[in-house]
Amino acid sequence: MISGINHITLAVRNIEESFKFYQDVLGLKPIQKSASSAYFLAGDTWIALTKDRTARSAPLPEYTHIAFSVSLTNFMEMKERINQSGAKEWQKNKSEGESHYFIDPDGHKLEIHASDLEARISSGKKEWGDSVHWYV
């Protein structure tokens, strides 16, 4: 049985630039850095950055993204820090809770989100009702 997400690996072109973004802008806890990789913790999830000369230079057109949890208390401060870094917004928030969607230096689509699954389910049940099969 799957017990959770072990780690997420992102291909990057420049370890130093990406390391600074994930540490200084997003505030992730660094674990390791070398010329070809860096590891961070985001809560209990390990985020790995791996230098890859074929890494993308622009975001993909699809909706796929990684969302990081932030407290509502820290949301505006985090959003401002992200905006001040020059990270571009890729979508406006359309869901429950506070969200900010932005792009990292390598074109990965990211989000900070100040809500939880319980709030998403509650909101979804009100919005979609019986048109969705709910397992919870």
Q: Strands, helices and their partners?
A:
Layout: E1 7-12, H1 15-25, E2 29-33, E3 37-42, E4 45-51, E5 66-69, H2 72-84, E6 89-91, E7 98-103, E8 109-114, H3 117-128
Parallel strand pairs: 1-4, 5-8
Antiparallel strand pairs: 2-3, 3-4, 6-7, 7-8
Describe the protein in words:
With about 140 residues, the protein is an alpha/beta fold. The protein has a single domain (about 5-130), classed as 2,3-Dihydroxybiphenyl 1,2-Dioxygenase, domain 1, CATH 3.10.180. The protein is about 25% helix and about 30% strand. The protein is built from 3 helices and 8 strands. The strands form 2 sheets. The chain has a 4-stranded mixed beta sheet with strand order 1-4-3-2, with helices on one face. Strands 5-8-7-6 form a 4-stranded mixed beta sheet, covered by helices on one side. The model has no long low-confidence stretch (mean pLDDT about 95).
